[in-house]
Structures are given as structure tokens and as C-alpha cells.
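Q: Could you predict the 3D structure of Fucosyltransferase 8?
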Amino acid sequence: MRPWTGSWRWIMLILFAWGTLLFYIGGHLVRDNDHPDHSS
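A: Sure. Here are the predicted C-alpha cells for Fucosyltransferase 8:
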């Protein structure tokens, strides 16, 4: 196994995790801004 194969796999995993996290947080922020009255 080449060393870079594991590296790009970790990089893809980290990027995917960050993308999902940012998308999740961003979606909630936009949702809260669009519906301020529904915030408990």
C-alpha cells in the first residue's frame, strides 16, 4: 500500500465531515433567521 492512499482517504473524510457540519450549522442559522417568530 502506498502512503498517499491513506492520506487522501483521511483528507476526504475530514473534508466530508467539515462540509456536513458546516451545512448542518448553516442550515439551522438560515432557518432561524427566516423564522424568528418560531424560535422558542
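Q: Anything worth pointing out?
A: Residues 15 and 21 are 10 Å apart (CA to CA).
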